[in-house]
Amino acid sequence: MHFSVNNHAPVTALLAGKVVAITGATSGIGRGIALEMARHGAKIAVNYYDKDPLQVQNLETLRAEIEEIKSGDSKSFTAVPGDISIPETGRALVRECVAFFGRLDVFVSNAGICPFYDFLEIPEEVVYRTLNTNFTGAYFAIQAAARQMKEQGDGGSIIGISSISALVGGGEQTHYTPTKAGILSLMQSCAVALGKYGIRCNALLPGTIKTAINEDDLKGEKGDKMAAGVPLGRLGVPEDLAGPAVFLASDLSRYVTGAQLLVDGGLYVNLQ
């Protein structure tokens, strides 16, 4: 099966017939992954935080883009509201995805926050909010996805969006880097725990990726300096994560589990 979407060259649909659920997919990395997986034939369910007007607005543009990719088919996309830091939200995403599409083949745990704070000054509520959003909520969402895949009995793919920050320190990220190390470790342990069900679990580790959240921070001299440390000569964009995510979701990676894939333009090896 081959098709062409927008200005993209014809590609093989690696995810034809697959149902994918993604947390935090209205912007940034999650959005880029959702769009690319849709181009590869997947049906998409996303989670979004309905109390954030920007996320609600972004959801509608995402819906429109996916429907365009799907030639107007509104039955290839659904969205489930909720705060991913609350365990029930992840369970609801899986439940509603299955109710809408009938199954779940791929789960991408992407939602996360990273407010920068000095370690000695960070408020307690920020620590708990970061832990609950980036790790605890992700843990229970992944558990719900795994339970559904086990029940289906034909395997599946779980992708945890970790970070290069799982491997290096960050002076104003002491609350953030442990959560990303936790996602990496969780994928490794889940690979062991779920392998007997044919469920593969892998982690993607983005480097510095330009998104709407950090766009202003990376403008000018700071962004140029950071890009200079990347062997490929530029900072990443959300679309750079999309191809690796499609690979890990597809049968091309059918014997890949417990792996960590750095998508950083070579930044990590240049830090050594």
From TrEMBL:
Gene3D superfamilies linked: NAD(P)-binding Rossmann-like Domain
The organism's place on the tree of life at top rank: Eukaryota
Family: Belongs to the short-chain dehydrogenases/reductases (SDR) family.
Keyword Ion transport tagged: no
The entry's keywords: Oxidoreductase
Pfam family, one: adh_short_C2
InterPro entries xrefs: NAD(P)-bd_dom_sf, SDR_fam
Protein's organism: Myxozyma melibiosi
Extent of the signal sequence: none
UniProt keyword Calcium present: no
Protein name, UniProt field: Peroxisomal 2,4-dienoyl-CoA reductase, auxiliary enzyme of fatty acid beta-oxidation
